[in-house]
Write a structure and sequence with these properties.
The protein is mostly beta strands. Helix content is 6%, strand content 54%. The chain has 6 helices and 47 strands. The strands form 5 sheets. The protein has a 24-stranded antiparallel barrel. A hairpin with a 6-residue loop joins strand 31 and strand 32. The chain is globular, with a radius of gyration of 30 Å. 33% of the residues are buried.
Length: 855
């Protein structure tokens, strides 16, 4: 198959190689600072009056440190004072205000002090928020450590001017904001601006075992009222990469990587009650999370008797598409230290704990029915090993075991009950390796394996990847290849012991382009066979596709006139079916973004799908396709200045296909009101109306289960979603949060058609009127959640948390209901209330050891 897309991508790759070969070696300027060995650790109170900060060198020409290392008494080596370099809004220009930073260390921790000068201390933004909420509109200070100096991965620690902590990992594998460690910090606003002190235990880091530690390092600060972000070592917005633009930290001598051992035991009590029932389920449980450092590089995480009772509820929807809804992950164990796994759709952690089978009606005898089908499989335990070696080899190993699940069958004549097994004991395993290479490049390997035992489906997926940059990090090429293997019981019969049927599938992805500078371009192609299936542990919405795309963009990062920065992009793609090799669709689109001087921003997008295209997935039956006529769509998003007390986000978009008189409209209005530095109130409402949509309704089969007709319908689909959440933060250690969500979708069919195999719609005598006189394909669907949560960090890493959750939902065929009728119908349903209380205590071996040594 040859098309303009493949010719374009080939041309792009040739340009990349030629440009790469023509590049001369380029070395970024790196600033340096030396750490000072503290004879006594500073008191972390935000007051920089400790001796280690005020006079670390004692003004002698040669000074011996606590570790008997001679230091040259040049204050510039140990104290960096001056203007950071802006990344935004004025890229590569000096910051508006000066900053002073220092680093000290002892055998337990590394200490950071910063005086962030500000001529108007009373104007410093001090908005509060929960831990890991980021700046939340406040001024911020960030320190970043690349402990192996690979210029690829970093640990970041963030403190706001109100004392709120955040921590995260950043690198070539992505951004891991769910990574959490226990460390200390304090801030004070003073006459010169505001001051920060931080104590970061070595157990929170990974570092080599060497005489002198030489780390990549950067500091940054955000001045909220100016909309300014600046860095100690410049991070140029025109260049690709982040950690590769760090400076260097030296002077840490004779520090041995400590034994990293923490234990977080917990106890919890959960009470669940349903409206109208006098019975309540009460569950008291206990368990622990263990973290053990293996050498200087790796950490073993073990979750013993995991408790997820306080995990946020899913945002359920009524799914009309042919594709699975992908839900977010809120379980801490599966969100922390998982960046190395979350690549290329190979790992979807929600698979762990799902019920993977639906019990067949063939198991039912006469007069029997299912009264319970499990949606979850109980999680027994999970183990995770992650880390990176001194040579830049990242390693991730995850293993989880889920228990059996059972469906309950009732005899409608005798009321007798019996159980049938749905899921066996199942083992989920993933291994991911990632080797860093020069110039921010890397190669990687991944393997996922799901074992259910004989008589059940087992699977294995093996993958490899590479990402290569040239010396200046201007051009990049990346590739990915994967082989999936499914081992199926003969005739799909669980009683069959021999695994004889093996299905192989593959995926290949190749892309590359120019990723730095004002002009940037990118081309990509992706091939997935019709038998490729990573979904036992991964997520792939649809296989059996060949995809090719290309885009070019123009990027400006320097303010001029009325704007601060902007980008504009032109793109095109083409899709083909892998088997049989046939055309699906072609699309072209443009989008762009601009930020104005007042920190308002606007985003637009417009797309056109010319000519006929074909949907092979919507019909849900092999051999059928749905013919789609030309369409176009576009939208506009406007965001006001988020620093203000009141800010707004607006989105409006449309989609139209003239052939069927289809027209969709979407509106979203979001608003945030900061009642005070401690209290945020947020609300968003969205409305989507799809008129005359042509969509799949059902498949009619004969007595032999052969397809008679695939039924499509002309329908109107209306969706209203309301989200409200507010948080009051008493202190950086304590907050209360309320969250409410109402989702309402109505589906009303007006006419039905038979879908021909060629993709056309023909007249049909199909009727969806059931025996009760209802239109069974019409839907009036609601889901309603309320959550009130409280969190108190009463000691570092130790939490008392409580949660109240109210859930209800309704589903009927009353698509004609108005809002009031709908609410009345929904509130007639039984509500489920959950109350959960949990106490977790953090124990750190090094802290305990340090406490005993003082005594």
């Amino acid at each position: 198959m040859k098309s303009f897309s493949y010719q374009l991508i080939t041309t792009l790759f040739l340009c990349i190689f030629i440009s790469t070969l023509s590049q001369a070696q380029h070395t970024l300027h790196r600033m340096n600072i030396h750490a000072w060995a503290a004879s006594e650790s500073p008191k972390i109170d935000g007051d920089l009056d400790d001796a280690v900060w005020s006079d670390p060198l004692h003004m002698s020409n040669l000074t011996a440190s606590a570790n008997n290392v001679l230091y040259n008494a040049d204050p510039a080596k140990y104290i960096s004072e001056g203007y950071f370099t802006q990344n935004s809004p004025y890229n590569n220009q000096p910051s508006a205000f000066k900053s002073r930073v220092q680093i000290a260390y002892d055998d337990y921790a590394i200490y950071v002090a910063a005086q962030l000068y500000d001529p108007a201390p009373d104007s410093i933004r001090t908005n509060m928020g929960a831990r890991d909420s980021g700046g939340n509109g406040a001024d911020v200070f960030v320190v970043s450590f690349d402990t192996y100096n690979t210029q690829q991965d970093a640990f970041e620690f963030v403190v706001t001017a109100s004392g709120v902590q955040s921590d995260r990992k950043r690198g070539t594998s992505g951004w891991d904001g769910n990574w959490n460690e226990v460390w200390s910090s304090a801030v004070q606003i003073n006459d010169e601006g505001w001051a920060v002190e931080m104590a970061i235990p070595y157990r929170a880091l990974r570092m080599p075992d060497s005489k002198e530690q030489i780390w990549g390092l950067n500091f940054s600060r955000g001045i909220s009222r100016r909309g300014e972000t600046s860095f100690w070592n410049p991070v140029d917005a025109n260049k690709s990469g982040y950690v590769n633009q760090f400076g260097t930290l030296r002077g840490i001598y004779d520090v041995k990587p400590p034994l990293r051992l923490t234990l977080s035991p917990y106890i919890s009590n959960v009470v669940v009650g349903k409206q109208g029932s006098d019975k309540m389920a009460n569950t008291f449980s206990g368990g622990a999370d263990l973290k053990l450092g293996l050498g200087q590089s790796f950490t073993l995480d073990v979750s013993l008797v995991p408790d997820f009772s306080q995990v946020q509820a899913d945002n359920d929807v009524l799914n009309l598409s042919a594709f699975e809804v992908k839900f977010g992950e809120f379980r801490d164990f599966f969100t922390q230290n998982t960046t190395i796994f979350n690549k290329w759709g190979q790992f979807y952690s929600r698979r762990i704990g799902q019920s993977h089978h639906s019990p067949s009606n063939d198991l039912l005898e006469e007069h029997e029915q299912y009264i319970y089908k499990p949606s979850d499989a109980p999680l027994i335990n999970s183990i995770k090993l992650t880390g990176i070696t001194e040579k830049g080899l990242g390693v991730g190993v995850l293993n989880s075991i889920t228990n059996e699940s059972f469906a309950i069958i009732e005899d409608t004549l005798t009321d007798d009950l019996r159980e049938v097994k749905v899921d066996p004991v199942t083992n989920f395993n993933m291994i991911s390796l990632e080797q860093s290479l020069p110039n921010n490049s890397k190669v990687g390997f991944m393997n996922t394996n799901v074992m259910r035992g004989s008589g059940y489906k087992n699977s294995n997926v093996t993958s490899g990847e590479f990402s290569l940059f040239n010396r200046t990090n201007t051009y990049r090429i990346r590739g990915f290849g994967s082989l999936s293997q499914e081992y199926l019981p003969v005739d799909d019969d669980p009683s069959t012991e021999d695994q004889k049927l093996t299905t192989l599938g593959h995926r290949i992805n190749l892309s590359g382009g120019k990723v730095a500078g004002k002009w940037r371009y990118w081309g990509a192609t992706n091939i997935e066979s019709d038998t490729y299936n990573p979904n036992d542990l991964g997520y792939n919405s649809s296989n059996n596709q060949i995809y090719a795309s290309a885009n070019v963009s123009y990027n400006i990062f320097e303010p001029k006139g009325f704007y601060r920065r902007y980008w504009v992009r032109l793109s095109a793609n083409e899709n083909w079916l892998y088997n049989p090799r046939t055309f699906i669709s072609r699309r072209a689109w443009t989008d762009g973004w601009m930020q104005f001087n007042n920190l308002w921003s606007v985003y637009y997008d417009f797309s056109i799908q010319p000519g006929l295209s074909y949907d092979y997935f919507g019909p849900r039956v092999d051999g059928y396709r749905f013919k789609q006529y030309p369409s176009n769509w576009g939208g506009l998003t406007i965001n006001t200045d988020g620093r203000q007390k009141y800010s707004v986000s607006l989105r409006t978009s449309y989609w139209q296909r003239q052939e069927f008189n289809q027209f969709d409209t979407y509106y979203r209005y979001g608003q945030t009101f900061r009642a005070s530095d401690k209290w945020d109130i947020n609300h968003s409402i969205s409305w989507n109306n799809k008129q005359n949509e042509k969509g799949y309704a059902t498949t009619v089969r004969d007595e032999n289960d052969d397809v008679e007709n695939v039924i499509y319908g002309d329908r109107n689909v209306t969706t209203l979603e309301n989200n409200f959440w507010t948080q009051y933060t008493f202190s950086p250690k304590m907050f209360v949060k309320f969250r409410l969500r109402h989702y309402w979708r109505q589906v009303a069919y007006s006419e039905f058609f038979n879908l021909t195999q060629d993709g056309d719609l023909s007249e049909s005598d199909y009727s969806d009127i059931n025996e009760d006189g209802e239109k069974e394909h019409d839907a009036n669907y609601n889901t309603f959640n309320m959550e009130l949560s409280y969190s108190w960090e009463f000691l570092p890493g130790s939490f008392f948390t409580a949660l109240w959750r109210n859930q209800l939902g309704s589903s009927s065929h009353n698509s004609h209901y108005g809002f009031n009728e709908n609410i009345n119908e929904m509130w007639k349903e039984a509500q489920v209330n959950t109350v959960s209380v949990r106490v977790m205590y953090f124990l750190d071996y090094q802290q305990v050891k340090k406490g005993f040594s003082r005594n």
